[in-house]
Amino acid sequence: xxxSGRKGSDMNIFSxxxxxxxxxxxxxxxxxxxxSLEKMAGGKLERLLKRMxxxxxxxxxxxxxITIAIQSSSAMTVMLVGLVNSGxxxxxxxxxxxxxxxxxxxxxxxxxxxxxxxxxxxxxxFLKPKNFSPLLALIGILLIxxxxxxxxxxxxxxxxxxxxLMYGMELMSGAVSPLADMPGFxxxxxxxxxxxxxxxxxxxxxxxxxxSAASVGILQALAMTGSxxxxxxxxxxxxxxIGTCVTALISxxxxxxxxKRVSVIHISFNLIGTALGLLALFGGEMFLNxxxxxxxxxxxxxxxxxxxxxxxxxxxxxxxxxxxxxxANKVISTEDKPSDFxxxxxxxxxxxxxxxxxxxxxxxxMGALALESMQLxxxxxxxxxxxxxxxxxxxxxxxxxxxxxxGGYLVQISQHGTSSADMRTVSRLLHAIGDFExxxxxxxxxxxxxxxxxxxxxxxSTIAREEVDVLTSLLEDLxxxxxxxxxxxxxxxxxxxxxxxxxMDLLTEEIxxxxxxxxxxxxxxxxxxxxxxxxxxxxxxxxxxxxxxxVSVIEEQEKQLPxxxxxxxxxxxxxxxxxxxLTLFLRNVTAELxxxxxxDTVLLLDWLMKxxx
Length: 613
Prior knowledge:
The protein is mainly α. It has helices at 13-41, 44-51, 56-70, 73-85, 91-104, 106-112, 122-126, 129-146, 150-176, 183-189, 195-209, 212-223, 230-243, 245-251, 257-287, 299-317, 321-331, 352-382, 386-413, 420-455, 462-488, 491-494, 497-520, 526-558, 563-574, 578-589, 598-612. Helix 1 (13-41) packs antiparallel against helix 9 and helix 11 (195-209) packs across helix 13 (230-243). 77% of the residues lie in helices and 0% in strands. The longest helix is centred in the C-terminal third of the chain and has 36 residues, at 420-455. It contains 27 helices and no strands. The protein starts with 12 loop residues before the first helix and ends with a helix.
């Protein structure tokens, strides 16, 4: 379909339809491309944002780099609003990134300006998007349909998105080309010689379509008619930068006041930049009589003005970053109440990789909270303290909230087109939050047992006390190993959990056997037996949950292996290995271990398990 050879035709209703269709293709292509780029980046964006925001220059370069990578300054700003709202970033860390994103978004205008290339040279002519986009589309669809690797399919979607975007640009250019021969359009464009009207129209149109790239693309298409001058285009470009703030304004609805300040900084930056730009434009015209303002502007000229405006605004305002932060604090002067802070911001789902990374951080906190509850509960058996009981109950409420909200959030993320690597992480997190919550429940059970021991003024015998101390030490080692392996996502460390869990099973059996012998000899009471049995049962259940957590880490890593290695690993893990044979052997000889001390028993069992591995 030839969309560029319509210059001699008349502008009619079908041209308007083509213009709207071209805009639709452009926006769809931009969405496909930016979403695929975000998906490929995954959690790297969030880690980069945390690591490189200490220095203003680094923040500036980071903002420009990420916006170039994901091709969306709006997505960048919404991401920042979500991260500030979740408490991940401070308001001051976002200023340089916002400025950098305004520079990074100018790349799209330069790509679109390639449509105006005219040359007889094959290689130069090949740079025209309408010439190389079909080839990109062919490669992209082959990758999408023919590749089994998720990353290659994502690359294919990026290529398809870019091709659709450029096709939309060609449609828009073809639709407006008849305007060049219409005197009425030339007369209409003279109304925009008023720079304030140009700023207003640029801001309004960009705000409506919520895409500065599409707005600049339409302006470049109109510029190809030869009816747009520098004096008309520059104020419209300034207005387009203001209009792109609408997305940030919408995203700031219902967030914390600190997150609202991100939008205030974004708007302030563009408003101040536009004011300075208009002042320079008026001043230059008044004192220097700038003749180029009346000359026609092309697609390259628009890209150049767009870049110069954003770079100059950044250079002027970057030294005043703290003043921008103070201005935002004055505009949004009140502070949040503690209850106003978001747990995990839904806006982060627009960048699923960042959302998954934040969920992992939140799950790590949940695991640390479960460990704290268990440690507090075990300490109650040594010396009971009412304040510890209150803390355990408070932690249990928090763990329930974590499970409920994290679980729902992770399910929603899985419906937002996450990458295969992120889906594996989501699966691991969903398994882990249930285990962490159950560990909290067992801590509450142990607290109740310790409370009963305290209220009835019962005490374990010296031998039983020694056994409980060994059990407590092993349980803490097991919990710490499981949590560390989960937090570091280290399968090697996770493999150390299983022998500890099996040692826990053998140890609880040995303690039960010794307790029965003490009951038979009259050295222990039934009441203490019930409490001890509750302690042993809960310790076994906690060990099982620790094993589940470790297995989820190991399985996630195994899924990244080639298929034949996955099958081999599962076969080895399920087979009757030396480790399982030794486990059966140990269970048969446990009855003979009562002749040695409990500490020596645990050391022997632990050593045998390590040898078995």
